[in-house]
Amino acid sequence: MRHINLDLDVLRSFVTGMELGSFARAADHLGRSTSAVSAQLKKLEDQAGTPIFRKAGRGLALTEAGETLLAYARRLLDLNDETMSALGGGDLTGNIRFGVQEDLGETLLPEILGRFARAHPKARIEARLSRNADLLRRLASAELDLAITWGDYTGAASTGVSGEHLADVPMRWIGPANPSLIEKLPSKDEPVPLVMFEAPCLFRTAATEALDRAGIPWRIAVTSSSLSGLWAAAAGGLGVTLRTEIGLPGHLTAFDATAGLPVALPTVPLLLHSTQAQQSPAIDRLGDIMRESLRQPLAHRRAA
Length: 304
Hints:
The strands form four sheets. A five-stranded mixed beta sheet has the order 4-3-5-12-6, sandwiched between helices. Strands 10-7-11 form a three-stranded antiparallel beta sheet. The chain is of the alpha/beta class. The radius of gyration is 22 Å and the shape is globular. About 0% of the residues have low confidence. The protein has nine helices and twelve strands. Pfam families: HTH_1, LysR_substrate. This is LysR family transcriptional regulator. It comes from Labrys miyagiensis. Belongs to the LysR transcriptional regulatory family. Keywords: DNA-binding, Transcription, Transcription regulation.
């Protein structure tokens, strides 16, 4: 069997074009001509042995084979970049304090810590998994060097803390995968039971505002101080909550319009913060790993 070696340079053009939404922008970003990137994509399709693009209106979309190739291309590029970082940056040292909110912690934190520790064993990380309000407070007092937080959605009170915008993530109503566990959602007789964090919480505010605008009565059925508590209460059918689909456990589901809940929900910005005026190489590299670790799940949510 003849093995075909995919060209990482070609894969980088492919991935960059899909993430930027335009291969012309990808060419500009990578310092290439548009015709050169087009030739790379033709080469990639020839190597794949099957079409990876299909016509979609006036543009192009990925075929099923193209979606598969994109997922593997991201993994290959991440491994390549991690390898080169380990070879050239194994001597990075220093202490780094970084935080992430609970929604991202279970899936994102192990990947970030593992990738960084393998490449830079001499650097030390102090990680904090916490609620958004606590992370913002610690950023304001410079107790963290880096953090990923939720930002303000339209209508929310300003936190006064800005950061690098990574994505706008849709809010969704979350409940048990078996919706029969919740007998009544919107009802003339019973208010919608809500499972929420203790105030202040931007998702709690967004949920009650959306229900009020729709004229749907509600009540706080369960108040929790932890995300695991929210998931447990929602899975047990005690009520619905409002979060994003990032990090959503398999035994829970995002409801669609058939549930009768308001579908005109805001998006919430995801931000990467740095509190260091002059970044150290170790902090810079950890920030890069954070962006790379979020890239695939965020791209999946945008595609959905």
